Amino acid sequence: MRLVFALAASILFGTGAYLLLNRDLVRLVLGVVVISQSAVLTLIASGLTRGNAPIYPLPDGEISDPLSQAMALTAIVIGLAVTALLSVLILRVVLAYRTEELDEVGREEAEREARLERDDAAEHRAEEEAAR
Amino acid sequence: MTALALSLVVPWAAGIVLVILDGRRRLVGWLAVAALAANLAALVVLAVSVLSDGQVAGTTGDWPAGVGITLRADALGVLFALLSSLALLAATIHEVLEGVRERVFPGLVLLLATGLTGVFLTGDVFNFYVFFELAMTASYVLATYGGARRELGGALVFTMVNLLGTFVFLLSVAGLYHVTGTLSMAEVAARMDGVEANAALLIAVGFFIAFSVKLGLFPFHFWLPTVYTATPPAVAAILSGGLANIGVYGVLRFGGELLPRELELAATAMIVIGCASIVYGGVLAVSRRTASEMLAYSAIGQVGYVLVAIGVGGPVGFGAAILYTVVNAFNKTLLFLTAGMRGALVGAAFAVGALSVAGVPPAAGFVGKLEMFRAASDSPALIVLLFLGGALSLVYVLQVYQYDFWRGERTGGRSGWPQQALIAVLALLVLAAGLWPEPLLALSQDAAAALPGRDR
């Protein structure tokens, strides 16, 4: 059983990581969703026990581990909230940049850097001219 | 316990209410400042009782111990909570004086304060994750503050990278639960000895990666300059003065208390990574000419010192790491807030912050650097490197000071007197901490004593 969980979690993580390497912004969100599922699966797998429902007062015999279920539920809720937030963020980026490609967003930053460096160099030349 | 509960409940409840209200109105902004001040006051009361009577602990909802979530405040947690709360308060007052531009800003800062206070005062590993995620989510939204294209691009990078970091953290929490069968930090620390070495090492590496991403250490720093330069000064001050403390606290708490064996094993690696950060941050900061870009790269270099001190370890190393974090958070809050300002007091405040970053007395940075040298006194190579880092920081801060204030390259209108008074107060705090360092030294020693670590 552990092996199945481990395989499933690692495949999910790998899929998510692959999606994150994509240029498409929507796939970034999907990648994060898939990776969060991999984390949830790992949380469930961290306390795999079979038994009665763990309701207080505790019944006789083995009980199943309530903590890993509680953790998984919390992680799912947080994952949902983060996904919603991320979707809105991507939507605003798409509206602002008018593109769904990550490259375009990065290019603007690179152009700004290049412009700053050009300005610096030009000013440096002007200073040298003035000194002469 | 009352002060502990209040320090969490006040910003949380106020944050939920203020998120609904329109934060651009003056009154709402000042309400947020009042709630943050109340949080700070509760933390001061808590700190006094922790320092005089030792650790304060309690279980939420009156559940029996072992069932409910434990909250506990020891010297280390209280010190970090106080520090972050102070940084947030200063940045919020500054932004309210300047005029808040987005309606959710005051509420989000309060929720961030709740998350930070919770992270530092929880005694439960999973609860740590929940508060951690609360603080991070609030800061993802804060990073979009301003709402123009650059801010959004920066926020996208910030969110994606840090989300990955939190998932790595969550995976490590699951691993920790699997090998120890408990989530309480005290229990985990007690049971860690019987755990198989390889499993423990894997978990420790996961935690280290998660916190290094938050800190912006050298191989994980790639997101930091984009974000710190794209966000407005107040948000950059909040991120570097408040949020980045989680990284140092996490490495100290998880490394020093829960996984001391693994920390010892990784000591050399941590010193190497720290040194790489110092050199990389310093060299790149020298090549920048605007204040915010220089500060972003300087932030990468400064956390390198902290990591070196943690790598050295023992009471001296941990004490130096904590002291340096406190001083660095003050410096960064002060300098980022001055980044967009002009005026008579601004230059003086910037100079104080700059001297503190470079470690020149009488600013507080001198005490931090002195403790660093004390921690590294065994190794000549390390001392040379720390000296080199200090020299680089002196060059980059004075270079930007020269550009901005002597050649007058800083543009924009003169800032109002209240804003200038605020940063003057911050600068005076930095000076006071440098002139009278005993309380800060004693605090950081107490905080380091809360960690068992290894003995040297």
Summarize the structure.
The complex is a heterodimer of chains A (132) and B (456). Chain A is an all-alpha fold and 132 residues long. Chain A has helices at residues 2-20, 25-45, 66-97, 102-131.
Outline the structure in words:
The complex is a heterodimer of chains A (132) and B (456). Chain A has helices spanning 2-20, 25-45, 66-97, 102-131. Chain A has four helices and no strands. Helices cover 78% and strands 2% of the residues of chain B. In chain B, strands 1-2 form a two-stranded antiparallel ribbon. The radius of gyration of chain B is 20 Å and the shape is globular. The chains are: A mainly alpha (132), B mainly alpha (456). Chains A and B meet through helix 2, helix 3 and helix 4 of A and helix 5 and helix 6 of B.
Annotate the secondary structure layout.
The complex is a heterodimer of chains A (132) and B (456).
Chain A: H1 2-20, H2 25-45, H3 66-97, H4 102-131
Chain B: H1 2-20, H2 26-53, E1 56-59, E2 70-73, H3 75-98, H4 105-121, H5 125-143, H6 149-180, H7 185-191, H8 197-215, H9 224-230, H10 233-243, H11 245-258, H12 260-265, H13 267-286, H14 291-312, H15 314-338, H16 344-358, H17 364-375, H18 380-406, H19 417-435, H20 438-449
Antiparallel strand pairs in B: 1-2
Helix pairs in contact in B: 1-2, 1-4, 2-3, 2-4, 3-4, 3-10, 3-15, 3-19, 3-20, 4-5, 5-6, 5-10, 6-8, 6-9, 8-11, 9-14, 10-15, 13-14, 13-18, 14-15, 14-18, 15-16, 15-17, 15-19, 15-20, 16-18, 16-19, 17-19
